[in-house]
Amino acid sequence: MTTEYKPRLFERDADIRALGEGLLACTLPREAWTHEAHLGACLWLLTERPDIDVDAEIAPIIRRFNESVGGVNDDTQGYHDSITRAFVAAVRSFLSGTNETGLAARVNAMLLSDVGRRDWPLRFYSRDLLFSVAARRAFVEPDLAPFP
Predict the structure, then answer these.
(1) What are phi and psi of 69, to 5 degrees?
(2) What is the rounded CA–CA span in Å between residue 132 and residue 10?
(3) What is the pLDDT of residue 15?
(4) Coil, strand or helix: which one is 8?
(5) Cβ 59 vs Cβ 79: under 8 Å
(6) How many CB atoms sit inside 10 A of residue 55's CB?
(7) HEC profile for 98-124?
(8) How many domains does the chain fold into?
(9) Domain contains 142
(10) Is 148 within the bounds of a domain?
(11) Are 108 and 10 in contact (CB under 8 A)?
(12) Which domain holds residue 43?
């Protein structure tokens, strides 16, 4: 957690909307599905798609996308339920405290905050638990601390 963190930021709201729509339609290029894209799409889903129950639908959405670009969702690769749900909690926590109003401004502020870091879940999970098959396949509660 001491390494320098330089996220790729977004210039326009439309870029984030295109990521989210591409995720849902399975038209997003595989190489565009970065850490920043994951978080941007999550924030977009939570704030601009009230018709989607993120808690119920995020796993099938990401699994379907992974498969559409030739990926595999198994015990070692693809969708990771505990990491995804940790970041959904992170995005919700960030949204509850931000004053930013524009989509790109909110996403960029989140990416530059602690919750935007790739290693954020390791504040709550031991490495062994987080990277276990059980945690990949289904949500497991954090073993170090509860989410904020």
Answers:
(1) -105, 20
(2) 32
(3) 97
(4) coil
(5) yes
(6) 10
(7) CCCCCHHHHHHHHHHCHHHCCCHHHHC
(8) 1
(9) no
(10) no
(11) yes
(12) 13-137
pLDDT at 148: 86
Torsion region of 16: left, alpha or beta (phi above 0 gives left; psi -120 to 50 gives alpha): alpha
Q: How many residues in total does the chain contain?
A: 148
Q: Is 50 helix (H, G, I), strand (E, B) or coil?
A: coil
Q: Look at the block and give the residue holding tokens 């109003």.
A: 101
Residues lower than pLDDT 70 in the chain: 1-3
Assess contact for 107 and 10: CB atoms under 8 A. yes
Task: Look up residue 119 and give its two tokens.
Answer: 């290693």
Pick from 10, 72, 71: which is nearest to 35 by CA? 10
Q: How many CA atoms lie within 13 A of 136 on its CB side?
A: 14
For residue 5, is it within any domain?
no
Q: Does 145 fall in a domain? A: no
**What pLDDT is stored for residue 3 in this prediction?**
62
